[in-house]
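thread: overnight batch results

M.L. [08:02]
morning all. the overnight job finished for the chain we discussed friday. pasting input first so we're all looking at the same thing
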Amino acid sequence: MNIKQKNKPSLEAQQQLEALRTAMVKSPEKKRRLDQYAVFWENDRSVLVGEDAPRRDEKPQ
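M.L. [08:03]
and the structure it wrote out:
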């Protein structure tokens, strides 16, 4: 979802957005190093990435 704003966000909002962007860049690498799977949102559905990620056709235990 993209929302266009006419007003510039506050300095605090800009700092929060930058912190979120930084976390999103670092998170997949951290998950990979810890040998954990990661969950992303792509094309209006969740995507699980990693060797130990549950498959969609598996039933939860």
